[in-house]
Prior knowledge:
The protein has 446 residues and is α+β, with helices and mostly antiparallel strands. It has helices at residues 43-58, 68-80, 86-98, 110-115, 118-121, 150-153, 175-182, 241-254, 272-282, 324-334, 393-398, 410-424; strands at residues 6-9, 12-16, 30-33, 106-108, 123-126, 129-133, 140-145, 161-165, 168-169, 189-196, 200-207, 209-212, 216-222, 228-234, 259-263, 269-271, 287-292, 298-302, 313-317, 339-342, 350-356, 362-371, 387-388.
Amino acid sequence: MNHSRLRRVALVALAGAGTFSGAVILGSDLMVGSSTAAIISDSPKEVMDEAWQIVFRDYLDTTGKYSEETWRKLRRDVLARSYGNTKDAYEAIRGMLGTLDDPYTRFLDPREFKEMQIDTSGELSGVGIQLSLDKDTKELMVVSPIDGSPASRADVQPKDVITQINGKTTKGMSTEDAVKLIRGPVGTKVNIQLRRGKNQLISVDLIRDRIELHAVDSRLNIGADGLKVGYIRLKQFNANAAKDMRNAIKELEEKGAQGYVLDLRSNPGGLLMASVEIARQLLDDGVIVSTRTRDGVQDIKRASGRALTKAPMVVLVNEGSASASEILSGALQDNHRAVLVGQKTFGKGLVQSVRGLSDGSGMTVTIAKYLTPSGRDIHKHGIQPDVVAKLSEDDAKSLKFDQLGTKSDPQYRVAETTLSKQLAGATGAPAVTYDPDKKTQALNNN
């Protein structure tokens, strides 16, 4: 092995709660030297050491399970063993990362790593479920179904727990193993057993299909008082989300929208920079988000004077609004740009980077946490709405996806009423009409 050879490891930042959060390269590739090459004689151990080095350099410990001394000892132990094949080495890497007790830091074999890029293509095949591993219970939880997917048509709901897949228990199962069982050729069937609430068990047969991922749905609604409401449903933060959002705002502005309802319900997140770019379309000034690494380094993202609309805004959120959705809603709330309506958000405030390894495998690693402009750490806490609007179980069951953002949607009705009060300048309204031409410095020193 050439000791001077450098590996190019793609550095990607994610702010998503689900297994299938998309990824794009945000900056230059990271150059990683092979300084340990002398003690690594075969490819599997080389990949193991690459994964170890990434954690050693960049991992942000949020569980209290990481110590540099223990991590160094673990490296000596895993590299001292013999591995009969690549599969055994991959399992050793997963075991090594498992000691961190961080569900967001995980290893992906070459097939799984390739699948992580599916959101950027705008299309995938499967049943349309965004998954996360519950930190406390270690159960597989649905973050949200994708609109129009087999899962959404079967009424799979956020926070449903997947207990069985094709009759196989999911106890102790990783998200990667669950994905392997759930995904498959278009037209084939998979049976999923769900636990909803404490005791309700639901068995669902899903036919796998090809799913197109459109980031934005929008239309102009006319309220009871003639109010022209620009309704925008942002479903995920993929590579096209900022462009789709910009087009929607421009079109609705041309149609004379007097105010906006931005619907982030059941949006599981995605690309960190997509949320920042969308915030810049709605904020003319102020801090959007700050990220902090284990070294305390802050990367502060700010608005850039390019807001596309001055109209007042209401943001709809619920327990399925996660990560990048929380970055955007937190920025709009803290900057007094919008009123949040709905239910407390998911509470995922960690940022991962996606790293490619030399054999085509990869890993995600927690590298930072993000804070809202006012300094709130929302991880595990979520964001509280300004106006609470719950959706009853009966309403949730009866409400169809094509009724979201209509008079049949109880939470939307509250959002529209709140927006109407803003426009009327009602006493006690939590926000006022935002003027992106007026420079404010209230949060710039955060």
